[in-house]
Design brief:
- This protein is α+β, with helices and mostly antiparallel strands and 212 residues long.
- It folds into two domains: 177 residues, SH3 type barrels; 32 residues, no CATH class.
- It is built from six helices and ten strands.
- Strand 3 and strand 4 form a beta hairpin.
- The chain starts with a strand and ends in a 15-residue tail after the last helix.
Length: 212
Amino acid sequence: MIYEFPNSASAIRQGDIFQTIPRLDISFAELSIVNKNNEQEAVTWDDVRGSTEPLTAVVGLRPVWAIVITQDCDATRVPDISLCEIKPLPSVLRGSIPTTLKQWVSHLKKQAVQNLKWFYLPPDQGIGFADRMAVDFLATLRVTRQDLEAARHLRRGRLNEVADEHFRERLSEFFRRYPYNEWYPFNKEEFEEYRAANATEAELISPYDYQR
């Protein structure tokens, strides 16, 4: 498949895939800190953000699959490594989920060009993916380089050369993309046809004054 399997001593690189990386779930509105009396106290972030002393908090953790997005040259020297969460593909798809192999092939081909928010990872027992997965570019996390290097036993593999080149390009497209409403140049009739063709997202499609 599109994966390769470096030995545990291999340096961390962009495209490295890790299993069970801890992701913090924290809410500004509901924090649980350990106060000076060594007791848990429910606060908001606004209550404590002015503190000049480090705070100890009780936070939620969950293990996630993740892939390194930091560039190779930085991954060997920067203090922190950035990763994106890997999720089951259906959870990042918009619209209906394909049900046949033919539909999947057509959908993946189309989305590989049109959708810049995720990157497809095919199933492979060697790396541990029983189902189709995707890198969610909207779900990022940070791990210290020192911690990630110490956790290289959690690395299940990495993207091969072909996949890594594609991943690098998709990643750069996502972070440099220019946000715009693709229907902005349409006249009134073209806009109405566009909105009708995208009925599942119609509530998100608002006309400009010249399209009313």
